[in-house]
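Subject: N-acetylneuraminate (7)9-O-acetyltransferase

B.,
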Amino acid sequence: FKGGDTCEYLLSSGRFLGEKVWQPHSCMMHKYKNSEAKNCLIDKHVVFIGDSRIRQLFYSFIKLINPQVKEEGIKHGNIPFEDKSASIKVDFLWYPEVNGSMRQRIKSWAEGSVAKPHIIVVGAATWSIKIHNGSNEALAQYKINITSIAPLLEKLAISSDVYWVLQDPVYEDMLSESRKMITNEKIDAYNEAAVRILNSSSRNSKAKVKVFSVSKLIAQETIMKSADGLHLPESSRDTNAMILMNVYCNKIMKPIDGSCCQPQPPLTLIQKIAFCFFTLSIFGYLIISLIHRNNYRKNKSCTDLESGEEKKPAVSTPNVSTLEMLLHCFCKLGLIMTYFYLCDRANLFMKENKFYTHSSFFIPIVYILVLGVFYTENTKETKVLNREQTDEWKGWMQLVILIYHISGASTFLPVYMHIRVLVAAYLFQTGYGHFSYFWIKGDFGVYRVCQVLFRLNFLVVVLCIVMDRPYQFYYFVPLVTVWFMIIYATLAVWPQIVQKKANGSCLWHFGLLLKLICLLTCIYFLSYSQGAFEKIFSFWPLSKCFELNGNVYEWWFRWKLDRYVVFHGMLFAFIYLALQKHQIISEGKGDPLFSNRVSNVLLFISIVSFLTYSIWASSCKNKTECNELHPSVSVVQILAFILIRNIPGYVRSVYSSFFAWFGKISLELFICQYHIWLAADTKGILVLIPGYPMFNVLVSTFIFVCVAHEISQITNDLAQIVVPKDNSTLLKRLLCIAGFFSGLHFFSAMQDQPRH
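Prediction pasted inline below.
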């Protein structure tokens, strides 16, 4: 990798993904909306100088500001454009030849008292070839004229952005007779002259005229679609205009999915403190390790030289202390977080845009399904949704979601709707799992709550600090955290109804159902009262956790999208455990869940329901309308899958160890993908090995999975230290954690002051 100047790559190199999506080399290009373009160019003056090809680029550029503009200007004359709402002026100046007139205009900006434009886009040559019939004398004069203009352009480049647009190739077979002398050989000669003169002139200059050569590459792929062989098709010139917008605006607007031309963000105060902490942890662990190793060598058994017998050490090898384990975890975590930062905050590795094709999504899906079926083993128990089965379910869902993200399949609505069901299924398991635990165990202690909250949130809190992102950015963790607390509050509030108590009287079952009905009523009310929801989560300190871009709308949208599915999971757990208690279902090895007749009927209904939902999701035409129905109907496919997976005894008795392994680290995989597998906060793809897409995915995936597994181990180890079972020790740790978050809030307020 040559370095961090992605602007140079954006202006000079790239390739097409499919027919219309342009991928710059090494960086990501943002697709600007007209509102964003206006915000970037507010109070700016942009000038396009040149021939009819530059006029095309001018029109494509102003359509980014105002899509309603029509190409009705004078063909061989100046064309003004102004957006008064944002005080933007964009002018096209008709100078089809590089001559004295063009020089005089540029000189008036460079040396005169006239206000200089903020952006100047210049380019011309085909008229010189056409008028002078492609003569060598015209080329020689072109070189003289550019040589005289180059110093003036460099002078302008000190205070303005100046771009010289190289001439695009032509499609010679389609050229009219009057343009037959414009050959690609002549165009290459003119381009070569322009580049050589501009580059040699800029060596002695402080500022540099940027050569816009990427349009040549775009034209080479698309010029055959030209209407006359000379002018580019609309899609190609729109791409050129978008590149221009990215070159100028990315450093101003800083879009997440526009890494081209963006400088590396400066380290925040909290990031610097985190860096110091991890550095001290690494040195601390190394020092303690050296001391322990030294003590071990001293106490190591040695050979008695006189008797030739081995002596045993007087002191046994000491156990690893809590401090050493703590430092060891933070040492590893520090190295991993350094990798996270280098991948997605430093301009060290390349990033590319996603591009969806059916094959890029469905072929990997088939591949992992074959692998999953290959690694089939018997389960330790044959209960419905046993531990191996839920791990397997989480695992294959997580792998499908990962493939969905890296392939950019969110643009394909049927796939999007099915992935929504997978996210809902995760939340269904949250409701099912936590309800089952509290109902059976009756353990509402602080230790259990702290263990769950720590395991869910540890990695996200560290990433918020290291990657300088808000908590709500990792939306799934806040979602499962809040739902866990809702489940806990529902069951822990008086009267506490658990299975042991309910076995004594059926009335307790009705009491629990009343609690669930109250919960459903609250969910329904909040889902249709955005104002009430936003008021609840806008209070400090909740607002600090759930705000994104200054409001809690994103959090409300995410919560509303799967608002009923956790309740469905709790209700399913209640019904299943009641059926199990009364021995209505059979969970023996190889036995169907119900009698043969009932099992066959339920299996048929489940398969039909599963397929019906898939047909409905695949026929969706409007995402907004389908999202409105999703919370109510997603449970159909989830329940259908559970019954299909558990009614046949043989199917319930086996599981895929391949999927189950991934299921155990599914949360870490979901969070880590944001920064070390995908890039630009999931908007693009991380490129460790440029030029070899498949090999790059293999290498980055291997590292990504290993890191996720290691973080899972670190989280489990730290959970034992940070959340002890002893209540008095736990209380002290909670006070320390409260102090930590208070300090974090204080430093966050300090670093926010300069930003405001």
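The chain is about 60% helix and 10% strand.

T.
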